[in-house]
UniProtKB/TrEMBL annotation:
Keywords: ATP-binding, Cytoplasm, Kinase, Nucleotide biosynthesis, Nucleotide-binding, Transferase. AMP binds at T31, R36, Q57, L58, V59, G85, F86, P87, R88, Q92, R161, R172. CDD domains: ADK. It is an enzyme of class 2 (transferase). It comes from Streptomyces rubiginosohelvolus. This is Adenylate kinase. Its main location: cytoplasm. Belongs to the adenylate kinase family.
């Protein structure tokens, strides 16, 4: 299956993607995680992306599309993938369409996670991620780690993402509304969008998502 996950920052895309990718036996591809890995390794790509990410703006398409394409052309992604955080504007969605068309394949669904803004703000404020792997995600009150400040999965140190500050979150939400939400209409015209509520327990949301993808 080839699935795109959309939703505002903090909706739970990464959390759900981990379970869905496992259930569906497809790789979870998060452009945010790829950027953070590049930043912590100090690569050129990470250096190019950092100022945009810290400001809550989108990293330019020239950088992002190439990185996403590289990841999608790896061998584990030939039979499907779950895209988390890509595409994030209409230009990226068009580039993805061209890429899929070249390979003679299609998206199966665009899963749209709906969460009210006040809940998103709470989820982001309490989010703590692992320094070793930002796919390992916790929440101070909703899913606290067993030991404070330590990742349950790998023992790495937990920290608050620099772009999860209150000020940057406001910019990211605005960027979501103005640049990312239009892709929902873009995909709706292709009949691909399924919208679910991402409120409630993580496992309940996963069940809802699996049901919607049937
Ligand atoms: P969240 O999970 O809170 O939505 P992500 O980890 O997906 O955040 O993304 C963090 C930041 O990385 C974004 O605010 C943006 O600066 C950058 N980023 C991630 N994916 C993309 C993309 N597809 N296009 C441009 N920038 C991106
Ligand atoms: P996104 O990738 O959309 O930015 P995350 O998956 O990182 O979102 O989730 C944001 C925060 O909300 C994390 O701290 C995560 O632990 C928490 N979270 C995710 N899903 C739920 C849920 N169903 N209920 C409560 N908290 C959640
Ligand atoms: P912080 O609030 O600690 O700066 P960031 O989200 O900005 O957190 O950093 C993401 C990752 O990039 C972390 O693993 C961090 O160690 C690393 N990092 C932080 N600052 C820099 C920098 N100037 N250059 C390269 N990597 C950095």
């Amino acid at each position: 299956m080839r699935i795109v996950l959309v939703g505002p920052p903090g909706a739970g895309k990464g959390t759900q993607a981990a379970y869905l990718a496992q259930n569906l036996s497809i790789p979870h591809i998060s452009t945010g995680d790829l950027f953070r890995a590049n930043m912590s390794q100090g690569t050129d790509l990470g250096k190019q992306a950092r100022a945009y990410i810290d400001a809550g703006q989108l990293v330019p398409d020239e950088v992002t599309i190439g990185m996403a394409k590289d990841r999608m052309s790896q061998s584990d992604a030939v039979n499907g993938f779950l895209l988390d955080g890509f595409p994030r504007n209409v230009g990226q969605a068009e580039a993805l369409d061209v890429m899929l068309k070249d390979e003679g394949v299609k998206l199966d669904a665009v899963l749209d996670l709906e969460v009210p803004e006040d809940e998103v703000v709470k989820r982001i404020a309490g989010r703590r991620v692992c320094r070793k792997d930002s796919a390992h995600v916790f929440h101070l009150s909703y899913s606290p780690p067993k030991t404070e400040g330590v990742c349950d999965v790998c023992g790495g140190e937990l920290y608050q993402r620099h772009d999860d500050s209150e000020e940057t979150v406001r910019t990211r939400l605005e960027v979501y509304h103005t640049q990312t939400e239009p892709i929902i209409d873009y995909y709706r015209s292709q009949g691909l969008v399924v919208t679910i509520s991402a409120l409630g327990e993580v496992a309940d949301v996963t069940a809802r998502a699996m049901d919607a993808l049937k």
